[in-house]
Amino acid sequence: MPLPDLLPIQPFTRPVRGSVVLPGSKSITNRALLLAALCDGPVTLTGALFSEDTEIMAEALRQLGFVVKEDSAQKTIYVEGRSGKIPNESATLHVGLAGTAARFLTALCAAAPQGKYRIDGVPQMRKRPMKGLFDALASQGTEIIYLGETGFFPIEIRAHGLRGGPVEIDASESSQMLSALLMVAPLATLPLEIHLRGKVRWPFVEMTLNQMEQFGFSAKAMRSADAIPISPGGYSRSSVYVIEADATAASYFLALPLVVRGVVYFPGFFGDKASLQGDTRFVRVIRGCGANIQDLVEPNRIPKDVGKSDDRIVGIDTAYYTAAKIKGGAVQDFREFSDTFLTLAAIAPLFDGPTTITGIAHTRKQETDRVAGMARELKKLGQHVIETEDSLEIHPRPLTPGIAIETYGDHRFAMSFAILGCHDLLGNGQPWLTIKNPACCAKTFPNFFDVLEGLWKNSHSSQ
Question: How far is 256 from 264, CA to CA, in rounded Å?
Fold first, then answer.
């Protein structure tokens, strides 16, 4: 059922209690789609995310001539790898607002031995950082024709392959540009030595390097702090690749018990244990705010005071999570896992002291200016917010009811403020906060509001 343009959030009047099955990771799914296309045979991705961003990536691969078959019911995507070859020598690709797809597809098209490829996105995508990747590819022999403003989409790529040798890249504005170059680097004619300019947020780069290894190519052995050498080679892996649950999506439901108290179970989510995703660091942040997060080896170890033993939680390392007293005074550097900063910022009005969030300047150039947008919406809610280029300092004040949150077409605004709206501000269970354009969550978590509603129903029907 389509979501309305304005969605009032139903507060919880009882502590939350229920399980959340998280969607697959967007970052891992889109990397896996590209790497599978580069493999020497077919690969089936299981546990894949089905969302606007991943559909954009899959459809673009089809436009390039790859066989990509999706089964959303089974959460699987079949990709027929072509050993690094792009079947079609011309294509027009539309990447919407999907930054990962935009950067990965640009690098893939540039690595083709020959071909002409046009790439464009929505108006906001035309403002997102791309120049670092464009410059690096141009230095490798790619002709990039700007069809609009220099350094931005739309472009036409006239591919001549990657010749190899030293190449500089400035990925300080987005680590996705470095990840894109890394994944196609094995296709270069000669060994490629990538030299880094500016600071790079490493967790997503490490994710890329680890996935390259999982797809049969090791790129980690010789790398240093400022250079990564990649020898020519290819990708080869078994026929099935499993996608991890999305750690960023988990952040909203990790925050929920702090807002409404209670317990949430996360079957199959490993928290801050071994994971490809740097955003699992949010688990540490939320622990510092008073969360009690534990891992269960057996279902019958669920404590009776936070849940019933018949919840059928299965598997090893299932996490359960309860809220203690929420704490303020936090100073958190989110540079390495910035997609989750909005989750903390949105619930900061409920803390017992100010919260300072740093390391977020680069998020001004994402789906929207996330720093300015968050400051603006919190001020509408009556909060005292001090904004700098790289930080937000949030001082709790009484919340102002009756506010409609502007999401700026950004899924993370919608989901973060929806969690705040679950707080029973009026004390009578009546909605006090409304989300504009909630359907923007389709970018990474299409059924987010269904999951939230399911938790509400389960919590209010349980005895």
Answer: 8
CATH topology match: 6-23+245-461 vs 26-224+233-242: yes
pLDDT mean over 209-221: 86
CA 275 to chain centre: 14
- Tell me the CATH number of domain 26-224+233-242, given options 3.20.20.140, 3.40.50.720, 3.90.25.10, 3.65.10.10: 3.65.10.10
Alpha-carbon distances, residue 407 vs 7, 163, 413 (angstroms): 12, 43, 5
Cα distances (angstroms) measured from residue 326 to each of 14, 248, 294, 374, 426 = 17, 21, 17, 21, 19
SS (H, E, C) 233-249: CCECCCCEEECCECHHH
CA separation for the pair 343, 332 (Å, rounded)? 12
**d(C-alpha 351, C-alpha 423), whole Å:** 12
pLDDT band at 265 (very low <50, low <70, confident <90, very high): confident
pLDDT at residue 295 above 60? no
| Contacts with 286 (C-beta within 8 Å, 6 or more apart), sequence order | 251, 254, 255, 258, 293, 344
Sheet-wide strand order for 143-146: 90-94, 115-120, 155-159, 143-146
Question: What whole-number distance in Å separates Cα of residue 331 and Cα of residue 79?
Answer: 44
- Length of the chain as a residue count: 463
**Which residues are identified as catalytic?**
339
Domain boundaries, the chain: 6-23+245-461, 26-224+233-242
The pTM (predicted TM-score) of the whole model is: 0.91
Q: CA-CA distance, 110 to 86, in Å (whole number)?
A: 10
CATH superfamily of the 6-23+245-461 domain: Enolpyruvate transferase domain (3.65.10.10)
The CA-atom distances, in angstroms, between 397 and each of 208, 326, 357, 382, 432 are 41, 15, 17, 6, 16
Select from 324, 460, 349 the least CA-distant residue to 13.
460
- The per-residue pLDDT for 297 is 38
Closest CA to 290 of 353, 248, 380: 353
Tokens representing 86 are: 């792009």
